[in-house]
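Whiteboard transcription, Tuesday session. T.W. wrote the C-alpha cells on the left side:
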C-alpha cells in the first residue's frame, strides 16, 4: 500500500509539471506566430500554475508573458506596464539582454503613443505615457521634461509641478550637444539630428563648416513655468521663491532674468518688472523687444511720456518695429477724446464758436502728429489692417481725399486677401 501511494503521488507531480510546460509551450507558440491577442489570453492559465514552476520554467514564462503584452506595436498602457514589470523582474537573470531590449521596446511604444496623443491634443494622456516612459528608463530624463510640458498644455498643473520639481532634484539642464553645418545652397546654418547625419551631408558636399555646440539649457523655462503655475494657484510667494532659487544657481543667466521679469509682469508688479528688465538690458542693451516692453510697463502705469521715450528707443534699435510706431500714435491720439468731448459740449454763442475753431485746429494737430507714426507702422508691416483703417480715418478728417481713397482701396484688398 505504501509503494502504491508513492507511485500515485509521483504521477500527480509529473502531471503538474507536464501541465506547466504545456501551458508555457502554447504561449511560446502563439508569440512565435505573432498571435499576440491569443498569447495574452494564454497568460492567465499559465500564471495559475506559476507557483509550482521551477525557477528555470518560471523565468521562461516571465519572458513570454512580457513579450505577449508588448505585442507587435502595442500602445495599450496597461499591457505595456505589465510587460515592463515582467521585463524588470528578469534583470540580472540569464534573460538580462532580453529584459534590456524588452524594456526599450516598452519605452519606445509609450513614447510613440504619447506622440499620437500630443498630435490629437490629448495632452494629459501624453503626459502620463511620457512619465511612465521615464519611470522605465530613468536615464532618459528628457521624457520627464516633455511629460511636464504636456501636462502644462493640458492644464494639469499639479502633474506638471510634480515633474518639474523632480527635474530640479535631478539637476536637469536639458542642454544637448547639437550638430551644425552650413547649407551651401542657402548659406544658412542647419542642425542635424545626429553627428552621423551631419557628417554625411558634409561628405555629400551639400554642406560645409561642420560645428558642434550645446543648446541653451531649459532651466530658465522650467523655473518660469514653475513660477507661473504657482501664480495660477494664487501662490505668489512660492512663485518668487522658485525664481530666486533658480537665479541663485545661475546668477548670470540672462534667460532666467527675463523669466523673472515675465513673472513680475504676470503678477502686475510693474515696478519690479521694470527693475528686472533694466538689469537684462545692461547685459543685452540692443534688445528692441525688451525696450518696447518697458514702454508698455510705463504706459500701464500712466507714464505716457516715458512710454513714448521707450517706444522711440525701440524703433531706433529696430527701425521696422511696427507695434512701437503704432503705440506712439495711440498715445498721441489719446488726447483726441477730451478735445472732441469739449467740442460736443459747446453751445452756439460767439465765444463757443471761437473756442470750437481753436479745438478743431488742436484736434487736427493731434492727427498730424500721430499720422507719421501710423504711416511708418504700415510701412513696416504692410498687412497691418487696423493701422490702415486708422490712417484712412485721419486722411478723411484732414480732407486728404485722394490719399483716403487710395487707402480705402488698399483696406478692401487686405480684407479680401485675409478672407
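and on the right, the sequence the group agreed on:
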Amino acid at each position: 500500500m505504501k509503494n502504491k501511494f508513492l507511485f500515485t503521488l509521483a504521477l500527480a507531480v509529473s502531471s503538474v509539471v507536464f501541465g506547466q510546460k504545456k501551458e508555457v509551450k502554447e504561449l511560446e507558440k502563439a508569440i512565435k506566430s505573432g498571435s499576440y491577442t491569443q498569447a495574452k489570453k494564454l497568460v492567465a492559465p499559465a500564471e495559475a500554475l506559476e507557483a509550482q514552476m521551477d525557477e528555470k520554467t518560471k523565468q521562461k514564462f516571465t519572458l513570454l508573458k512580457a513579450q505577449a503584452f508588448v505585442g507587435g506595436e502595442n500602445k495599450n498602457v496597461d499591457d505595456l506596464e505589465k510587460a515592463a514589470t515582467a521585463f524588470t523582474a528578469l534583470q540580472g537573470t540569464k534573460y538580462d539582454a532580453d529584459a534590456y531590449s524588452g524594456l526599450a521596446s516598452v519605452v519606445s511604444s509609450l513614447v510613440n503613443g504619447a506622440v499620437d496623443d500630443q498630435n490629437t491634443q490629448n495632452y494629459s494622456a501624453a503626459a502620463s505615457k511620457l512619465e511612465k516612459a521615464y519611470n522605465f528608463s530613468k536615464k532618459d530624463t528628457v521624457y520627464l521634461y516633455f511629460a511636464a510640458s504636456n501636462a502644462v498644455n493640458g492644464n494639469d498643473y499639479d502633474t506638471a509641478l510634480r515633474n518639474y520639481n523632480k527635474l530640479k532634484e535631478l539637476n536637469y539642464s536639458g542642454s544637448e550637444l547639437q550638430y551644425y553645418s552650413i547649407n551651401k545652397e542657402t548659406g544658412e546654418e542647419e542642425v542635424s539630428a545626429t553627428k552621423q547625419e551631419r557628417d554625411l551631408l558634409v561628405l555629400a558636399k551639400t554642406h560645409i563648416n561642420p560645428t558642434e555646440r550645446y543648446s541653451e539649457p531649459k532651466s530658465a523655462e522650467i523655473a518660469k513655468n514653475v513660477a507661473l503655475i504657482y501664480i495660477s494657484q494664487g501662490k505668489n510667494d512660492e512663485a518668487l521663491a522658485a525664481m530666486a532659487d533658480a537665479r541663485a544657481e545661475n546668477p548670470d543667466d540672462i534667460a532666467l532674468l527675463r523669466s523673472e521679469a515675465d513673472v513680475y509682469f504676470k503678477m502686475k508688479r510693474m515696478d519690479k518688472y521694470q527693475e528686472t528688465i533694466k538689469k537684462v538690458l545692461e547685459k543685452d542693451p540692443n534688445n528692441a523687444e525688451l525696450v518696447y516692453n518697458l514702454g508698455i510697463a510705463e504706459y500701464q502705469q500712466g507714464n505716457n511720456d516715458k512710454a513714448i521715450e521707450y517706444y522711440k528707443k525701440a524703433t531706433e534699435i529696430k527701425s521696422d518695429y511696427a507695434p512701437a510706431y503704432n503705440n506712439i500714435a495711440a498715445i498721441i491720439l489719446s488726447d483726441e477724446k477730451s478735445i472732441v468731448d469739449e467740442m460736443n459740449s459747446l453751445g452756439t454763442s460767439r465765444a463757443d464758436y471761437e473756442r470750437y475753431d481753436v479745438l478743431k485746429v488742436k484736434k487736427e494737430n493731434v492727427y498730424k502728429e500721430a499720422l507719421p507714426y501710423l504711416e511708418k507702422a504700415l510701412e513696416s508691416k504692410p498687412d497691418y489692417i487696423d493701422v490702415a483703417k486708422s490712417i484712412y480715418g485721419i486722411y478723411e478728417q484732414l480732407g486728404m481725399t485722394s490719399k483716403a481713397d487710395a487707402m480705402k482701396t488698399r483696406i478692401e484688398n487686405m480684407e479680401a486677401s485675409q478672407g
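Someone added at the bottom: The beta strands are 177-183, 189-192, 207-214.
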